[in-house]
Write a structure and sequence with these properties.
With 333 residues, the protein is α/β, with parallel strands linked by helices. Helices cover 51% and strands 14% of the residues. 47% of the residues are buried. Bound molecules: adenine (ADE) and zinc ion (ZN).
């Protein structure tokens, strides 16, 4: 089964590019940009990756962002992820970036977007990996700051496909970002939001009704509300689950308690993703492998998870068809 997973064509729909920054590249960029890291070496840094909750992780994740300064840094970060994606048979990916964690340090929006997009275009030509970029607002900051961020990015509107919402969930409900999501919709952007990772099921209801999301990131706590599960199934909302992230951030105590198999059996359009692979100990294939072992997933389950990743992606209808056909052919052989 592990061999089957490795070469299976798949899409990744929940990946924070800043969360793919490996310690080796972090130290390399720190040296290049003359930035002092509060760790002596990569090993010491890795030892700090023990998290009691989401906030513990976010504190370290934002600190790591400080090494990213120039367009080339954002390019190097992104191309490193694509190299990994190619190795793991990802054929389509939709990447989050957190502009506010960089613009707040004086980095221009253009610098960030140009670096990331250059790598995306190169990966499409070199490795046949299609991709989209999703501009994510930090929910611990104000809606005013999110609006400023969107306005700064609108000059490059064709470079990204959707807006998202991440960072500290508890205490920062969807309602806080009603206006900026409305603005994004008016500009033709799609909408996603993290919800139900640590926050209650009500935040998922509000992401649907107030933010009018096209896809839900995480969604674990939907399991607490039968009516919500029904609604997610009826509305054919895709869910981007992140098993190893949930384990590392103690959203689940054990992967045997992970809701993905139950959700799959309920007919929800769930997918497998890595979230912040450098921090959580695995890329997409390691996530597939971990839940396959913990939940005893069948070949049919695994194929369905991959098919879902194409179906709930933002790819065009023709690209979806092409990817689904590739999956069929893979399983036929
Ligand atoms: N930013 C990066 N990873 C995140 C996660 N898992 N939840 C919320 N914000 C994030
Ligand atoms: Zn995330």
């Amino acid at each position: 089964m592990i061999e089957l997973i490795k070469e299976m064509p798949k899409a990744e729909l929940h990946l924070h590019i800043e969360g793919s920054l490996e310690p080796e590249l972090m130290f390399q960029l720190a040296k290049r940009n003359n930035i002092n890291l509060p760790y002596a070496n990569e090993e010491e840094l890795r030892k700090a990756y023990e998290f009691g909750n989401l906030q513990d992780f976010l504190d370290i994740y934002y600190a790591g962002c400080n090494v990213l300064i120039y367009e080339q840094d954002f390019y190097d970060l992104t191309i490193a992820y694509f190299r990994k994606a190619k190795e793991q048979s990802i054929i389509h990916t939709e990447i989050f970036f957190d502009p506010q964690s960089h613009t707040s340090r004086g980095i221009a929006m253009e610098t960030i977007v140009k670096g990331i997009r250059r790598a995306m275009k190169e990966a499409e030509v070199q490795w046949d990996i299609s991709s989209y970029l999703i501009l994510s607002f930090l929910r611990h900051l104000s809606e005013e700051s999110a609006i400023e961020t969107l306005e700064a990015a609108l000059a490059m509107k064709d470079e990204f496909i959707a807006v998202g919402l991440d960072s500290t969930e508890l205490g920062n409900p969807p309602e806080k970002f009603r206006n900026v999501f409305e603005m994004a919709a008016k500009h033709g952007l799609l909408k996603v939001a993290h919800g139900g990772e640590e926050g209650p099921a009500q935040y998922i209801w509000d992401s649907l009704s107030i933010l009018k999301i096209d896809r839900l990131d995480h969604g674990n706590r939907a399991m607490e509300d039968v009516d919500l599960l029904k609604k997610l199934a009826e509305q054919k909302i895709g869910l981007t689950l992140c098993p190893l992230s949930n384990l590392k951030l103690q959203v689940v105590k054990n992967l045997m308690n992970h809701p993905i198999k139950k959700m799959l059996d309920l007919g929800l359009l769930v997918t497998v993703n890595s979230d912040d692979p450098s921090y959580f100990g695995g890329y997409i294939n390691e996530n597939f492998e971990a839940i396959t072992n913990a939940l005893d997933l069948s070949k049919t389950d695994i194929k369905k998870l991959a098919a879902n990743s194409f179906n709930v992606s933002f790819a065009s209808a023709s690209r979806k068809q092409e990817m689904l056909l590739e999956l069929e052919e893979y399983f036929d052989n």
